[in-house]
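Weekly structure sync, notes
Attendees: PL (lead), two postdocs, one rotation student
Agenda item 3: pending single-chain targets
PL asked that the sequence for the first pending target be pasted directly into the notes so everyone works from the same version. It is reproduced below exactly as submitted, 558 residues in total.
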Amino acid sequence: MAFKTDIEIAREAKKQPIQQIGDKLGIPTEHLLPYGHDKAKVSQDFIRSLEGRPDGKLILVTAINPTPAGEGKTTTTVGLGDGLNRIGKKAVICIREASLGPNFGMKGGAAGGGYAQVVPMEEMNLHFTGDFHAITSAHNLLSAMIDNHIYWGNELQIDERRVSWRRVMDMNDRALRDIVVSLGGVSNGFPRQTGFDITVASEVMAILCLAKDLEDLQKRLGDIVVAYRRDKSPIYCRDIKADGAMTVLLKDAMQPNLVQTLENNPAFVHGGPFANIAHGCNSVIATKTALKLGEYVVTEAGFGADLGAEKFFDIKCRKAGLKPAAAVIVATVRAMKMNGGVAKADLGAENVEAVKKGCPNLGRHIANVKSFGVPVVVAINHFYSDTDAEVAAVKAYVAEQGAEAILCKHWANGSAGIEDLANKVVELAEGGSANFAPLYPDDMPLFQKIETVAKRIYHADEVLADKSIRDQLKTWEDAGYGHLPVCMAKTQYSFTTDPNRRGAPTGHSVPVREVRLSAGAGFIVVICGEIMTMPGLPKTPAAEVIRINDEGNVEGLF
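Predicted structure, written out during the meeting:
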């Protein structure tokens, strides 16, 4: 059976002018800053005018651990938003912007799929409205000003061995992970070792996604710790006097981007921190704006629930005062089979026993999300190769976990294929059973917070950390940072730090390699196992097949 590609479907979309999409939410034309005809930024003045309005209900879409078989979390987020609008609810979608690195690497695009997409697909997966470029520029302006300060006499007495602020770019480039800068003689500065992270791992990205307005943005930027003196006292971004200029660079990027689904429903696409490195959620300002404008807001958290949902609850909701009404966990029959030991090449053949064997991965995610006091429903994202017996096995397993699994066909049928899930989400959200609470209190010691996540979410036996890491955490506690949440940087493919261990493993340890203070964003990054803050390209990157065809259209994004 031949199917149209996502990009072919997106290109056939009957888009409405962005002013009409804004009008559906009551956003006056003068408060939309258009980028072409089909996307616009929403003004800060309009956002400020919404204060005092009641909030709609917040729905989180999360997933099982990702597999090469694909789960379709963003596709389900978009489909559910369309489905809620279809059954008469005023729903708004909030998702992250796509990073160029994965788009040209392995992923190829991030705007949903099939008939559950956000458009314009090509622009969203490329430069969009320039937000990521602004974040990259602001981050690297600070880098340049640090080295410039040292070059012109180092009045702040920065210890060049203790400059913690690296550089960033929005591309997968392993060659830049560890580099030496300022080679070439006196006029080029003082040589030192540093490196690049990917832009979506930048603290500036996290700050933009957690700041509530421009004033809060500048304060958080000023709070960034960029280096230390020989006595180990911190140097802040505001000491370098970069926070004002960085805010200027980020002024437009702070405004949420409004676009539309294939069914012409409103979607905010804003911010994009990675979930395996950073906190994996779209911006607080977009989410809060959507909550003031819609009855329902459907948002996603990156990768599996062990990373994305945990950070959504423990970082974003904690810091922004959000209270989710319900959560959807996306799973596929194919992924269950893969967790049950079936190779990717054999996923098309019916294998009910493998489905049953793989279901404990889903079961653990259900229990984890429930532990935050949020009611859960499972969305089985349908593939044509799924058999009735395999779907029935997933439904039966989920019922044993005290939840319901609903088959969803939004990829093929748009909102018509996801009505059952939309009705169930409304039932859960309006049932009043949500009693959300983060996993740990603010005043818990930092290492204990790490242990709490590792033991309760990953089901690890212990956390392995050198004395130097424990001492560093204690130093930060003594400096007043002990109240911060922890942001775990870990492989997305497993509950463990080994990407090859699927299912629901127990009896494992979580080794902590490094900890980083993100004082401006307001969390401690805990780097576990072999996770990289600058990814590399795969052997055959998606970039090899991305091109402009004879009609002048982009091909290869998928």
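Discussion points:
- The CA atoms of residues 306 and 457 lie 6 Å apart.
- The longest strand covers residues 509-518.
Action: rotation student to compare against the earlier draft before next sync.
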